[in-house]
């Protein structure tokens, strides 16, 4: 049974703009037969979304965790506008442009260890596809042709919506369970967060290591799979186990990177360097689609050969899109010049304080906070559509899913706006 809330009577004029119909657009993750119209937004500034009817919502989601500097940050707008004037796009095969080469060097300098080799693509899912492809070919290039084609991932994992990435998502709980039997079967195991599970994983890897190309995990927080947290020690243990059994370790930091968990990259908390890391979402400060798969020299060097077949045969049309790279460079400027990580720390403190009383609300199973991520988990799935309407009425944009209400605001959010978000969550918990 869905967690219900009392219906609310909209107090504001809900005029629908004439362009907003569902005649031609197919919405994400949506049953088109029963869906309500999405909320029309005409502009966004800072942490506020301006709606077609003139209302403003304080954004608690940061547009699927991308808008770390808020919307329309003038520095990003300026850099993108300058790049647009010069050259919106050129192909990356055979031609080079400064924004991409500078961005690659900056990412290499910021990432820990020797994560130095950057392969650009245009979405998170594709960057994970590239990581998986690199891992398989890493072994093939070393003569292990038929073996090492499998991946180990974890319960509640979410790594994307394309076929290879769906296969490393949680096949039971995840949104892609419909495709069981079509997707290549991978090893989806328990996160090793106890000594017993760690020992089990150790045995499993020992028995199956000859089939496995890599282990992949979202470090510290599994996002779309339910905002589940694990401790840095899990990542350290995974590094030890992968080294012991000679396996590659991939960190999918598409959600966690760029301050969301409190450090620039989540892997820093554990002082672990993966072999491959995937970045996207907040890479451009939430302004352009861009992703990067970054590897250590160990991986990169395995593709160096006199044999042309050892090369990585991948190259999306919009690879290293100059506008995206300009936005990403501008976003990195802001991480250097504005106190984003201190802001993330302040958000963490405030979320802890203000969400803690939710523990006592009826139907709440858990409240947890890490970095700029606050989660209230209910004891059953929520009625996301009704809750969304309620939140909009309260002047906030919060998008529950499954059994959770969560807050991942832009890192620039002011304390009073964050309080408006946490109050809206309190309010909804008591409006039943
Ligand atoms: C951890 C993680 N990996 C991969 C993806 C897929 O990224 P995209 O939606 O850009 O394909 C997401 C998206 O939410 C994600 O959170």
Describe it for me?
This protein is of the alpha/beta class. It folds into 2 domains: 41-69 and 339-429, Alpha-Beta Complex (Aspartate Aminotransferase, domain 1); 74-337, Type I PLP-dependent aspartate aminotransferase-like (Major domain) (Aspartate Aminotransferase, domain 2, 3-Layer(aba) Sandwich). It is 34% helix and 17% strand. The chain has helices spanning 62-65, 74-86, 98-110, 124-140, 163-167, 195-208, 232-245, 266-270, 297-301, 322-337, 340-355, 384-393, 415-429; strands at 41-45, 48-51, 56-59, 115-121, 150-154, 187-189, 212-217, 221-222, 228-229, 248-252, 276-279, 291-296, 364-370, 373-378, 396-397, 404-407. The strands form 4 sheets. A 7-stranded mixed beta sheet has the order 4-12-11-10-7-5-6, with helices on both faces. A 4-stranded mixed beta sheet has the order 1-2-3-15. Helix 3 (98-110) packs across helix 10 (322-337) and helix 11 (340-355) runs parallel beside helix 13. The protein is globular and about 65 Å long. It binds pyridoxal-5'-phosphate (PLP). Pyridoxal-5'-phosphate is lined by residues 123-125, 128, 158-160, 218, 223-224, 252, 254-255, 280.
Short characterization:
The chain has 432 residues and is α/β, with parallel strands linked by helices.
Please outline the helices and strands:
Blueprint: E1 41-45, E2 48-51, E3 56-59, H1 62-65, H2 74-86, H3 98-110, E4 115-121, H4 124-140, E5 150-154, H5 163-167, E6 187-189, H6 195-208, E7 212-217, E8 221-222, E9 228-229, H7 232-245, E10 248-252, H8 266-270, E11 276-279, E12 291-296, H9 297-301, H10 322-337, H11 340-355, E13 364-370, E14 373-378, H12 384-393, E15 396-397, E16 404-407, H13 415-429
Parallel strand pairs: 3-15, 5-6, 5-7, 7-10, 10-11
Antiparallel strand pairs: 1-2, 2-3, 4-12, 8-9, 11-12, 13-14, 14-16
Helix pairs in contact: 2-10, 3-10, 6-7, 11-13
The protein binds pyridoxal-5'-phosphate.
């Amino acid at each position: 049974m869905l967690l219900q809330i009392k219906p609310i009577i909209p107090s504001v004029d809900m005029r629908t703009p004439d362009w907003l119909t569902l005649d031609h657009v197919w919405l994400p993750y949506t049953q088109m037969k029963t869906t309500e119209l999405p909320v029309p937004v005409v502009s966004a500034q800072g942490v506020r979304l301006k709606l077609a009817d003139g209302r403003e919502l304080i954004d608690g989601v940061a547009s699927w965790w991308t808008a770390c500097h808020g919307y329309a940050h003038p520095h990003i707008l300026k850099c993108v506008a300058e790049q647009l004037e010069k050259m919106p796009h050129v192909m990356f095969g055979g031609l080079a442009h400064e924004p991409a080469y500078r961005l690659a060097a900056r990412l290499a300098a910021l990432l820990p260890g020797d994560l130095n080799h950057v392969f650009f693509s245009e979405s998170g899912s594709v960057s994970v596809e590239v990581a998986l492809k690199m891992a398989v070919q890493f072994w093939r290039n070393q003569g292990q042709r038929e073996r090492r084609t499998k991946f180990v991932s974890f319960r509640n994992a979410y790594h994307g919506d394309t076929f290879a990435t769906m296969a490393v998502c949680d096949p039971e709980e995840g949104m892609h369970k419909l495709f069981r039997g079509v997707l290549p079967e991978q090893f989806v195991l328990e996160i090793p967060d106890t000594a017993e599970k760690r020992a089990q994983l150790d045995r499993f890897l020992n028995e199956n290591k000859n089939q496995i190309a890599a282990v992949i995990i979202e470090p510290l927080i599994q996002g779309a799979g339910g905002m589940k947290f694990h401790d840095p020690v899990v990542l350290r243990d995974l590094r030890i186990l992968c080294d012991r059994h000679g396996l590659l370790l991939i960190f999918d930091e598409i959600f966690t990177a760029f301050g969301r968990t409190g450090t620039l990259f989540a892997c820093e908390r554990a002082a672990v360097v993966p072999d491959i890391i995937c970045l996207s979402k907040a890479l451009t400060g939430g302004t352009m689609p861009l992703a990067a798969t970054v590897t250590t020299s160990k991986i990169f060097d395995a593709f160096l050969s006199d044999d042309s077949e050892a090369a990585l045969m991948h190259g999306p049309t919009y690879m290293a899109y100059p506008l995206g790279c300009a936005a990403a460079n501008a976003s990195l400027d802001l991480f250097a010049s504005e106190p984003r990580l201190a802001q993330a720390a302040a958000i963490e403190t405030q979320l802890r304080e203000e969400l803690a009383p939710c523990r006592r609300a009826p139907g709440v199973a858990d409240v947890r906070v890490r970095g700029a991520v606050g989660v209230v988990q209910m004891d059953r799935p929520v009625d996301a559509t009704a809750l969304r309407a309620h939140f909009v009425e309260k002047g906030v944009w919060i998008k529950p899913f499954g059994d959770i209400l969560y807050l991942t605001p832009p890192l620039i959010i002011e304390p009073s706006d964050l309080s408006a978000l946490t109050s809206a969550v309190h309010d909804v918990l008591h409006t039943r």
